[in-house]
Write a structure and sequence with these properties.
Layout: E1 5-10, H1 12-20, H2 28-34, E2 39-44, H3 47-54, E3 76-79, E4 88-93, H4 95-107, H5 110-118, H6 122-125, H7 131-153, E5 157-163
Antiparallel strand pairs: 1-2, 1-5, 3-4, 4-5
Length: 164
């Protein structure tokens, strides 16, 4: 099972500061203590199933199946794609991607997400998708919609991060 994840809405200036930090120092302490956030949204452990449901069922980086892939692991990879970076993940979405995600999530119904969620391969996911996990996952995704809408309106960048 994955670990805790969340979104942070930031300005371009804060993103530029983060990009200037050596990769080895791009940790949760930097994100929590140094980076100025305009908004944030916790998604707990639901990020794993959200990503799988909105993409190809696998936990992979990349921009396949946009804009759904941009919610979690799509966008610019700032940390987490090599063995020495296995402690956490940081991805970044541009204001244009944030706008597209906000529009996409606004039209995503619970019924459609249910279809996507229950199509996840249990062997890939490490567990059989069930109603309890679906409710948990949908609840966090639904709660994030307002965050995405606000970030899109303000033309902010969105960081996704998760500890592993």
């Amino acid at each position: 099972m994955s670990c805790l994840g969340g979104f942070r809405a930031i300005t371009r200036e804060e993103l530029d500061k983060l990009r200037a930090v050596p990769r080895a120092d791009r940790d949760v302490d930097y994100l929590d203590c140094t980076m100025v956030q305009e908004d944030s949204c916790d998604i707990d452990k639901a990020w794993d199933a959200i990503h799988r449901a909105l993409t190809n069922g696998k936990l992979e980086y990349g921009s396949a199946n946009a804009p759904g892939c941009w919610v979690i692991l799509g966008g610019e990879l700032l940390y987490g794609n090599c063995p020495e970076e296995s402690d956490h993940i940081i991805t970044c979405k541009s204001p244009d991607q944030v706008q597209q995600v906000a529009q996409f999530l606004q039209t995503l119904t619970e019924e459609k997400f249910r279809e996507l969620y229950f199509a996840i391969d249990p062997a890939e996911y490490g567990m059989t998708p069930d109603e309890d996990d679906f409710g948990f996952t949908w609840g966090y995704l639904e709660d994030s919609i307002e965050f995405w809408q606000n970030a899109a309106q303000k033309k902010l960048w969105v960081i996704f991060d998760a500890s592993q």
